[in-house]
Write a structure and sequence with these properties.
By secondary structure, the protein is an alpha+beta fold. The protein contains three helices and two strands. It has a two-stranded parallel sheet.
């Protein structure tokens, strides 16, 4: 590879890592496997981080998960989930912040 391609690849890795950090902050430190791998972590890195308790599988802090659904949808109650029924949900779609109660 040429020097310019090496430099571009290095910048792309740094950008991916910064994006992963920003996503984890916005999502209350919750990330998907895909976000971790795009952010530059390999399968081995992820397994090591889980063993070191730097990453956790699932959500274990005891707080309920808040979910917004359209007011017309039907949903069976489930423990640990708080449902917020909203009109015009598609217009009010949000990114990264829970609905106000």
């Amino acid at each position: 590879m040429s020097d310019s391609k090496d430099l571009q690849a290095a910048f792309a890795r740094e950008d991916a890592a910064r994006m992963l950090i920003a996503q984890r902050r916005m999502q209350d430190r919750v990330t998907s496997y895909a976000q971790l791998t795009v952010g530059g972590l390999s399968r081995i890195d992820i397994e090591r981080a889980v063993r070191r308790n730097e990453l956790r599988r699932g959500r274990d802090d005891g707080r309920p998960i808040h979910v917004a659904i359209d007011h017309s949808r039907k949903l069976m109650p489930q423990p640990g989930i708080v449902v917020h029924r909203m009109r015009d949900l598609e217009r009010k779609a949000y990114g990264g912040t829970p609905p106000h109660t």
